[in-house]
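REQUEST ID: PR-0412
SUBMITTED BY: lab tech R.K.
PRIORITY: routine
TASK: structure prediction, single protein chain
INPUT:
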Amino acid sequence: MKISVIIPAYNEEKNLGATLDAVLASDYPDFEVIVVDNGSTDKTREVALKKGVKVVREERKGTMWACEAGRKIAKGEIIVRLDADCLPEKDWLSKGAKYFDDPKVVCASGPYDYFDASKSFRYFSFAFMKYIYVPINIFLSFFHIGGITLGGNTFIRSSALESIGGFNTAITFYGDDTDVPKRLSKKGKIIFTSKLVSKTSARRFQNEGIMKIGAKYIYNFFKTLLMSRS
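STATUS: complete
OUTPUT:
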C-alpha cells in the first residue's frame, strides 16, 4: 500500500531538514512526503523544497488545518502523521504498514523516544507509554469508545479517515490525538504498540516543564474523550 507522510510545520527550518532526511531514508518501497507550511515566516518552505518533497501552504493556523490540507492532496492508502522534530528509523514506515495487513485495523500508533532528553526521562516516559497507554488503548478500542495515539507517530487507513470526515479542524493542537481515534474506533481496530516507536524532541517539556505539559495532555485527553462527537 502506498503511504503518504504528512508533516505539519510552522517555523521549523531548524528541525525540518533532519526530519526529512530521516524519513526519506526509509526502506519502505512506496511513499510520498507532504510538508504543510502552516503560515511560516522563516525558511520552512525552502528547506522542504530543497529536499524534493511536496509542499502545500495552509494559512489557517492549527495542526489539524495543516494535516487536513495535506490529507486532501495525499495519494496514499495509509496516511501517516509525523511531526517536524521527529527522527524516524528507516524501518519505521515498514513496521507501521504491516499492521494494515489486517483489514480490521484502521489506525496504529506507538510510543515516542525523546532522543534529546535525559536518560531517566527517556526511560520513564517510554515505560509509562508501554505499560499504561497500551492497556488503556486495548480497553477503549475494545468498547469502540476511543483509543490512544501520539500525533507524530500515527498511521491511519485513508479510507477510514475519509469516512469520518477527515481531521477535525475545530481542534488547533491539544486533543487531536484523542479525537481521531475516538471517531475511528467506530470504524475498526485501533492499535497502540510499544514495537512502533518514533524518535522525537522533548523540547516542549524542556520549554514549559514536565508537569505543565503533562497536565495539559491529561486534561485535554479526558475533555476530548468525554465531549467530542462522532
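NOTES: DSSP finds nine helices and nine strands in the chain.
REVIEWED BY: pending
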